[in-house]
Queue: 2 jobs
Job 1
Amino acid sequence: MKFETVIGLEVHVELSTQTKLFCSCKNSFGANPNTLVCPVCLGMPGVLPVVNKEAIEKHIMAALAVGCRIPEHSKFDRKNYFYPDMPKNFQTSQYDLPLALGGSLEINLPDGEKKVIGITRIHLEEDTGKSKHAGETGSIVESDYTLLDYNRAGVPLLEIVSEPDMRTPEEAYQYLNELKKILVWLGVSDCKMEQGSLRCDANISIRPEGQEEFGVKAEIKNMNSFRSVRSALLYEEKRQREVIESGGRIIQETRGWEEDRGITVSMRSKEEAHDYRYFPEPDLPPMVVDKEWIERAKQKLPELPGERKLRFAAEYGLPEYDSGILNLSRSISDFFEEAAKLSGDPKQTSNWLMGDILKYLNQNELEIHETRLKPEALAEMINLIKKDVISGKIGKDLIEELLKNGGNPEEIVEKRGWKQISSGDDLLPVIKQVVDDNPKVLTQYLEGKESVKGFFVGQVMKKTAGKANPALVGKMMDEELERRKNNR
Ligand code: ADP
Ligand code: ZN
Ligand code: MG
């Protein structure tokens, strides 16, 4: 039997606000345990929450960017459960009246096609603290005690729930990449899965092809990268098929991904599901977001990657391919725009960014603003090449130097002696030398094999450490070889 896979994702992202959602504790990652806490986020009796406006604004921004509707009325609810990393014994979240409903995200498929994935809702809630089960692994008691860090308790968290619109693990992978790209672009979250500022639960079911009704789903947790999400889903769709093909039945359950073993294992079934007994949060008034507020938020929304891609192509005459690559990240896109204006040559600016610079960033896992390269320096370097002060080959060394150590291109060229040799008087002796040193190649040339000229030019570039002006070398080499032919 042929099966179709159905996937829906629940993604949590921490908002990068200055302070937590309901108190003025700092919202930051990596501080010493329990140094960013107060009576409110520790759930002491008698304290009252105050909503962080920055969190609401970032929520609205994210919602608008993916085309969600912002209902005028929304509210917070208490989701009740007991867990040591949640000091209040309830999580302040949003249940039936979230701040954002009904958006979508366009993803790219490997075959070049595009597909729209629906977003059901985006709601705001507080994050929990972190538990660390300590003690010696391998001892009789695997974890002797548990450490609790409440720095994360109360950090604003968006939950973005997709429609069950994805049909392959690859689509889920693309959806995650696209979602991250937009959220980072907006500056609402850094979306670092390895630091837990983005987390994903994946729901997956299968159904016989042609059947309208969805199959019973499993929810998969504990993936720590987008690749793991894709692997876990690939494993799970195969597992579910095999269960059904061997006459079994899928049960609704939560399964955990075990990265080392490459499998999912059952964590709990539906019977053990929590009954959260949601009720409206009595300590917070319902929220009213009026039309003017939404209008203001729309005005403040930055140009989005899709729009900017079109503008770059139109305004700078860039190929669509270039424009797409440059707009994969906001930082590269901003950098390009500044450097292109300064250099006056958008295409060269794009070439350097897409080539040597992106390669360096990927190899070193850096963002462009984490290097020492400045847009002014890239622009200046491009002009040094155009004015024949340095060769393109030297440009490659120069860009690496600028990425690593920064500085002023002209000064570096001066100091390193990287100026291009553009004087015939300086080049002629080298050219003669190279021809004299390679009599066999010269014979080949004289016998009519003109392609060996490239070899001679290459030798000159080598001898001058890439500093010779290649166009001039080419022209002078032609003249020299012509002379040798006539003097035969
Ligand atoms: P639950 O009540 O179990 O939390 P929801 O209806 O809230 O389920 O959906 C949670 C997520 O699971 C959503 O992203 C949704 O798209 C996805 N989902 C729902 N039903 C299915 C299904 N049958 N197969 C795959 N994904 C599903
Ligand atoms: Zn606090
Ligand atoms: Mg749900």
Note: The chain has 15 helices and 15 strands.
Job 2
Amino acid sequence: MHKPYYIFITGGVLSGLGKGICTASIGKILQWRGFKVEPIKIDGYLNFDAGTLRPTEHGEVWVTYDGGEIDQDLGHYERFLDVKISKINNITSGQIYWQVIKNEREGKYLGKTVQLIPHVTDEIKRRIRQVAEKSKPDFVLVEIGGTVGDYENAIFIEAARQMRMEGEKCVFIHVSYVPIPKHLGEQKTKPTQHSVKMLRDLGIQPDFIICRSEKPLDDVRRKKIATFCDVKEENVISDPDVDFVYELPLVFEEQKLAEKILSHFNLKPPQTLAVKKRWEGLVGKIKSLDKKVKIAIVGKYFDIGNFVLADSYISVIEAVKHASWHNGVKPEIIWINSKDFEKDPSKVSVLDEVDGVIVPGGFGSSGVEGKVLAIKYCRENNKPFLGLCFGLQLAVVEFARNVCKLEGAHSTEIYPNTPYPVIDILPEQKDILEKSKYGATMRLGEYPAVLKKNTLVWKLYGKKEVVYERHRHRYEVNPEYHQTLQSHGLVFSGMSPDGRLVEFIELPNHRFFVATQAHPEFTSRFMKPNPLFDGLIKALSVPKP
Ligand code: GLN
């Protein structure tokens, strides 16, 4: 059996500390030294996967190449580490209990009483080791979601404790919060002390504590945390607010975190740090950018109470950033709730003030007509437009209604009795929906598209014949309307290999009007923007004809 080094990352004090970014950054600094790293995210919720979670509930649903609908943290891992991560790398309580109960029903426990320990912990350990066995990394990074003290994640922490007891080579990193209360104006370490105390109650003494705080940790607090939490002073790591998340690996580098982790295991790095240079260079370049581009994201999953939840579109936002930085511009993202256009269609002229428009993925009828109005505005006003999944479907609806003059054309997802169902359900999806089998049943994961020569999309993808992007949809451009749409000037720039599904569309004689049935945001990386986002940003810097 493959024996990697395990890095367990737990969280303390409060959620939303950026443990995922921490985990990705630790992976990065080890990767820079030539190690193969494999991250795992554990989620305590009972949902089997994130596929049925509303984006405003738990952030965006990340889609893996092999069709997993999983936690958005896996997206951070891919963007930082530039590796493809399988759906087996996301473990939820739902999956664990499902398997344990299935085993019990199949008589696999031979009449034993089935219990949290050992049966549930054994299943957790099996799942963690399965990832190690499959990809044979040097390091497995296991991020245990939630906060120490939650009922939900205690059993996972117990499984980690058992792995150490069973002789696995483990290091425990606790990511905690050090607040600076306004009325005191100084960093307070007590919440961290309490959280480590709770972790110890579960049998884990952390080897490192990473302290999230607005400001860098000062020496006085570092000493205090070291003393009270029984961690070496040099292993108390400062994680202050940074301008953008890709800086964090460099913040850890300054504190020699990788060397400290390696020395914990008595390891020497196999490689020099040459590859780090490009990352450092890009971070430096971003800091000096001043030319701005304004991109509107016209969506609907924005408001929860008074907060704007950018998490719902995190991969789209990151893809815009990657492409912008790559092209030497600073993106300013403007959030537009498409429902605003429905209340007052004249408001669509706010798009005048932005350089480009993105209509991202979505489900259901709310805000749809507002999105259609935005797309019409882009088409008629030569405004650069990128449509993603639902964005493609609504671009087709708009084109059918206003160019092909198919009045009332729609997607059957929104209006089942439309006279012109230009977007219709994939035939294989009909039965699935009738039986309400919603979980993990969309057209999911990576699929190939054959590109049409000499189209813009073909050029953007480096003139490749076949390209792969990730999908998550049940509806498609209805083949009965392919001919009508094309004869009115809509170009199908990429099709599924059997020629049945429209994967990419574009409009010639437009600055940039491109949409895809896929979600290209999932293949965008910090150092490697996705070609469609890159194309959009490049189009913005070409002066309007
Ligand atoms: N609701 C549409 C479908 O199911 C689009 C999905 C999406 O944007 N991911 O096909």
Note: The chain has two domains: 5-47+131-283, 289-539.
